[in-house]
Structure formats: structure tokens, C-alpha cells
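Researcher: I need the complex structure. Ligand is cytidine-5'-triphosphate. Inputs:
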Amino acid sequence: MRILVGVTGGIAAFKAVALVRQLTEQGHDVKVVPTENALRFVGKATLEALSKNSVDSDLYTDVADVKHIELGQSADLVIVAPATASFIARTAAGIADDLLSNIILATPAPIIIAPAMHTEMWENAATQANVATILARGIHMIEPTEGRLTGEDSGKGRMAEPEDIVEAALALTLPQDLAGKHVVVTAGGTREPIDPVRFIGNASSGKQGTEIAKEAARRGAKVTLIGANFAATGAFEFVPVVTAQDLSNAINARLDADVFIMAAAISDYRVEVPSATKLKKSVVGERLELSLVLNEDLLARISAKKNAGQVVVGFAAETETEPSRLETLARLKLEQKGCDILVANDVTGGKVFNEDTTSVLLLAKTSATVAVTGTKRQVANRLIDAIVLAAAQ
Ligand code: CTP
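Model: Output:
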């Protein structure tokens, strides 16, 4: 993607260096357009070296190329970081007095700004009115955060971190193909109590489910992440649960959702009568026998009761290293559970748990199996593609 990074004149300009580096590392073609004042804070040579492109702030060089129009039109995305109070004011007024402000008026690409300034300047009525004006015109913003400012002072006005700016900016270019849908994701591993301090649990970390929840939100969905025994934050409702019964209750309150993604490792069994007091060796003796009873299979129940518009995704963690046998097992589970899509992986030796990368098979009732290897985010992205396809069928 061709990304134009505008840098305006504030101390946070030094963080634009990290932003440019992250974008080029992700394979994007980055063109940096600083203002004259930005170049007082960060060197042109640094920006050229990291963007691997020439850096130009002057409207009046190469005039024959009409470069403000060319740069504006060739960009797929425009990020202005940091955006000063003055830049925001000039943008609100439609003033075009340097290369960057001309591009802002000329580009059809989505624009996102990351303001940075002192708290007093951010809270000033003029700045707030200017921000409201440009947001109303469709410019996007990643809010400044609270934290250390230029000197010893701190407060709201610190520019968002480069990785958060990258995340928010790239999300603008994603298709909003889940807009209007409510997606419920379960993740993590349930715990079934034995006594007040002990439980039967499993190694699921909740990472894959969290990535799926984030990706669904980026694609426009309203998302509920039901998390068993981990915590996560993001653009979703987070519902913490402990046991399979808690998880069931949380799902039952949301049965009218459009998509259910059952990534949680839900205990198949629970202790029939958990002890109300801590079990003591001195009392239990040589052998401890636990009577376990089957938990309801939520995936099977939701799949059986779903209406025509709903999409249900199941997961299968198998210990099968041979891909074709894994696929056979997974097809069988897809049929038995009655879900629309099944994500299967081999967890032999406990690999995958708590890792950032994984390798899965994506099976759908109506299409061929796809093997995906990559980060859990990449897997999430491919899964959402499959869900969008299934919802359209
Ligand atoms: N699941 C569920 N309710 C349960 C147990 C599992 O909804 N009580 C869901 C999981 O969230 C996951 C899928 O079922 O989507 C995983 O099934 P799995 O536990 O692998 O299958 P089982 O039917 O338990 O089969 P196996 O005998 O292979 O363990």
C-alpha cells in the first residue's frame, strides 16, 4: 500500500521515525511529507533513510509535476503524526499554504491524524472546535493519551504510540464487511472447580480468540469476547468467565448474535460435587476419586438451533500430525457438531498454546479445506474472510 506520512512541527515528531520504520517493515511504500517546522525536530536524512524515498516539504520544487495532486491521488492512506494544534486549525479552515496542507485538500484517500500538544492547547475551545469540524468532515483521529509531555509536565496531549497509530490507520483500509453484525467470540480455557482453590483446567491462552475478536471489530462488527480465565482489552465488550456454566450463561444472554466463534477450550466434564471446603490430604488419604459429569456441548447446541442467517464456527484441537488424517478428523467433527466452519489444528506436544504463530486447517461445509500458517492475526483475518463468505451463502 502507498502510505503518505505527514509530519508536523512538534516534539513528538521524533516518534514519526518509529512510525515510518514500522510501516516500511510491513512492506508499505511510504512517502514522508514533513512541514518546514517538523524538520526543526527531525532530520530529513533520517526520514529518507527509513522511508527509502526522497523527503520533500516544499510546494515550489518540481512544480511541473503538480506534485501535491500527484502525491494526494497516488496515496491509499494518509497519516499525519504528530498533528499540531496549528495543523488542525489550518485543516479545519481549509488553508493550503504548504505541500502537506495542499495534499490534505487534494487526496481522496482516508486521512488519520494523531494530535500531540500540551494539555492546555488540546483542551482549548478553538482546538476542540477545529477537531470537531475535521472529524465531521470524515477525517479520522487517534486520540492523544495521558502521559509525559515535553518537559517535566504530564497530562492529556501525548501522541498515541506508533504501533497504535499503525493499527488504527491500517484498520481504515479494511473492508467493513461485518458492519451491522454482532459477533460473539469465546476464548481461553474454562476451569472446573474441585474445591475452592483447585480446578481442572487446560492450556488455552485465549490469544487466538482475542485476535479474532480484534479482527472482527476492525471489519466493522459489534463484538463480544467471552474470555475464560484471561483478560483482554480492545474495541469489544469483554465478559470474563471461569467455568463452562458461566460461559454457557454468557452465550445464552446473546443468542440473537449473527456469528458465534467458539474458540474457547471448554471442559467436556465438570466435578459432579465440588468440595465447599479445601480438600486436606490428612482427611482424603491415599486416593482421591473425583466423579466427573459431562458438560453440555454448547457448539453442538448452538449449531442445532441456529437460524438461517447465523454463522457458527467451531474449533478442534487434535493430536494428529499427519495433515490428511487431521483433515479427515476435522471433517467428521464439522459434521458431528453441525457448525458452518471448523478451525482445526494439531496440538501435539502442547505446541500452539500461548504462541503468536500457528498452523490451522479451515474447513467449511460448502468449500474446500484451506491450510493457513502464520500469525494468529493472519489466521483471524482468513477466518473472517471465510465467515463473510458463509454469511453471504
Ligand atoms: N465445545 C463446546 N462445549 C463443550 C466442549 C467443547 O462448545 N462442552 C466446543 C469448543 O469451543 C470447540 C469445539 O467444541 O469449538 C471443540 O470440540 P472438542 O472439545 O475438540 O470436541 P469434543 O466434542 O470434545 O471431541 P473430542 O472427543 O475430540 O474431545
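Model: Summary of the prediction. Residues 244, 262, 264, 266, 268, 295, 297-299, 314-317 surround cytidine-5'-triphosphate (CB under 6 Å).
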